Amino acid sequence: xxxxxxxxxxxxxxxxxxxxxxxxxxxxxxxxxxxxxxxxxxxxxxxxxxxxxxxxxxxxxxxxxxxxxxxxxxxxxxxxxxxxxxxxxxxxxxxxxxxxxxxxxxxxxxxxxxxxxxxxxxxxxxxxxxxxxxxxxxxxxxxxxxxxxxxxxxxxxxxxxxxxxxxxxxxxxxxxxxxxxxxxxxxxxxxxxxxxxxxxxxxxxxxxxxxxxxxxxxxxxxxxxxxxxxxxxxxxxxxxxxxxxxxxxxxxxxxxxxxxxxxxxxxxxxxxxxxxxxxxxxxxxxxxxxxxxxxxxxxxxxxxxxxxxxxxxxxxxxxxxxxxxxxxxxxxxx
Length: 334
Fold this sequence. Notes:
Layout (H helix, E strand, L loop, with lengths): L4 H19 L6 H13 L3 E4 L6 H11 E2 L2 E5 L7 H4 E7 L5 E7 L6 E5 L6 H4 L1 H8 L1 E4 L2 E4 L5 E6 L12 H4 L4 E4 L5 H12 L10 E2 H13 L4 H13 L9 H6 E3 L3 H17 L7 H12 L4 E2 L1 H5 L4 H20 L1
Parallel strand pairs: 1-9, 1-10, 2-11, 3-6, 6-9
Antiparallel strand pairs: 4-5, 7-8, 12-13
Helix pairs in contact: 1-2, 2-12, 10-12, 10-15, 12-13, 13-15
């Protein structure tokens, strides 16, 4: 698909329409809404982290109402089994009276899947999501079943109540394009939330996009060109998160045990392309990379013991990397 002014204009218009409809229900949280939509249009998945009551589940439910897509919600609990997510073969009786096994699809067979409080399930159950997130398919009893496109997983987790939870393994965290930290509302936002949710009127949203339109927008995003020096900047950002690499910063060498994977570079480039489109540009700039880097990398860095003991957050490491590499890139262009 050719990228031109009309294509970019339509992309921005559709994005703004979805944002506006979600805004009828969700107060504030503009960056979170934009981040979720960027993940959806990048073909990735999103992990939302925040304390209870910030509207994480409501955001996902509202998004499913705005998009003309199938939606399923899975409440993760310690007793949830993998078959409760993927589905299982059930013994049935056909018209002739013979006993046959028939596959009954689980809730993962939807366009949008909300994995609510995903860290409350055991690792065995969490692993049931891995194939679906990576391959967009499910294998049951040796038979593979493809999931309908677009397929998008939105998972939530609570960062403060850790009793009875199972931290997500690094391999599963790496499957999420973004990890978004949901902030608490401001005074004005909290006042608007109370006004909207305690009155008689209930906000009604309209469906804006369907599956084929979303897939077409994904293709438009992939067609956005990225110059070799900007792509190299994204690659250097990833390499700089690896201790003892040639471009690692002193902070990384001191506090990081493992850096971001190649999926981190893919996330940077894909999300930056959408940022460029939303800004009305035909190509990706350094600022597009830096703006999406925290969400794309914060869950992919593993701090060492010293970093955890010092209370160094992954965001601080990413900011340090971006500051140093951006300064170096600016010096080279001057």
